[in-house]
Design a protein that fits this description.
Oligomer: single chain
CATH architecture of the largest domain: 2-Layer Sandwich
Number of strands: 9
CATH superfamily of the largest domain: ATPase, nucleotide binding domain
Number of helices: 11
Largest sheet: 5 strands, mixed
Low-confidence stretches: none
Radius of gyration: 21 Å
Distance between the termini: 22 Å
Structural class: alpha/beta
Order of helices and strands: EEHHEHEHHEEEHHHHEHEH
Shape: globular
Length: 329
């Protein structure tokens, strides 16, 4: 993605490799790294071309940019290393400063894509394949994680349940489609950590309960009712997410609530948050569906603020699999 000095995205290109992972029922790190290597040059070239056309220029080169930014953490190490190595080379070759961005902070900034007037303080629910957490955004660059999952992430649970039902990968969209045809009250799946009194999450027990239920049905010679299982599972996830979100809003006194991450595209979850915010008279900011999943636009928006703050990375900086969002970097 390329962002101008005013925060307008002039190009935002996404290359998806979901099709390559679908046959394995999940992301294969080795394949992810190789696909990143194959795609990165073409994606960047296309981005420069789209930005040039948008700006009415004949062509745009790396030298025309003010800085080069890259996601350095957290995530799959092999995939991150590809981006970091490429960005270092581009920055060094063009003689431009390098900016490292925390991927999770990108999801917070994604709310700016749909609502340019979005400003903290806010409570943000980050729900994706790798993360499930509630964050108090006290200001840009000033975050406090209020609670996170102690085991599986929501997106991971959706993928595992979809796999158990034979629905394929990724699990989020297919579970969502099936759930729309089912009864969310059909099966009483557990609401883990619902009454824990804190803002942590746990998805492992729910995932196991659903898989066990499916296996028991098959063992009894019954064909599992896929829509009812999907709807009941989805409702169990949504109930806990909404309960914890309400606790976080009351605890912090924030008047804005927003979402980030791939699972933020789930229509039932979006509707449930809408109802919650209406009841609490809190502003709800939802990123557009295109900005819920991983994208470079949100990373560029973080990078713009870091550029103005003069927060640059040395060229010997490295990728990191883990990074604490609460610690300034």
């Amino acid at each position: 993605a390329i962002v101008d000095g005013e925060g307008n995205l002039v190009a935002d290109i996404v290359a998806s490799q979901v099709d390559f992972h679908a046959r394995f029922g999940g992301v294969v790190p080795e394949i992810a790294s190789r696909k990143h290597i194959e795609a990165i040059c073409g994606v960047c070239d296309e981005c420069l071309d789209v930005a040039a056309a948008h700006l009415g220029l004949e062509h745009l080169t790396w030298s025309d940019l003010d800085a080069v930014a890259v996601t350095y953490a957290p995530g799959l190490m092999g995939a991150l290393v590809v981006g970091v190595a490429f960005a270092k080379g581009a920055a060094w070759g063009a003689g431009k400063p390098l900016i490292g961005v925390n991927h999770l902070e990108g999801h917070l900034y994604a709310n700016k894509i749909g609502a340019p007037d979005f400003e903290p303080p806010a409570v943000v629910s980050l729900v994706s394949g790798g993360n499930t957490m509630l964050v108090h955004m006290r200001g840009w660059g000033d975050y406090e994680t209020l609670g996170a999952t102690i085991d599986d992430a929501v997106g991971e649970a959706f993928d595992k349940v979809a796999k158990a039902l034979g629905l394929g990968y990724p699990g989020g969209p297919v579970i969502s489609q099936q759930a729309a045809l089912g009864n969310p009250d059909a099966i009483a799946f557990p609401r883990a950590m619902m009454h824990s009194g804190d803002l942590r999450f746990s998805l492992s027990g729910l995932k196991t309960a659903v898989v066990t239920y499916i296996n028991n049905e098959r063992d009894a010679g019954r064909e599992p009712n896929v829509p009812d299982i999907a709807a009941s599972f989805q409702q169990a996830v949504v109930d806990v997410q909404v309960k914890k979100a309400e606790m976080a809003l009351r605890q912090t006194g924030a008047r804005t609530f927003c979402l980030g991450g791939g699972v933020a595209a789930n229509p039932v979850l979006r509707d449930a948050y809408q109802a919650l915010c209406k009841r609490l008279h809190v502003r709800l900011t939802l990123p557009p569906l295109s900005a819920c999943g991983d994208n470079a636009g949100m990373i560029a928006l973080v990078a713009l603020d870091r550029y103005y703050a003069g927060k640059f990375c040395p060229l010997d900086a490295d990728a990191q699999a883990h990074a604490n969002l609460d610690e300034p970097y």
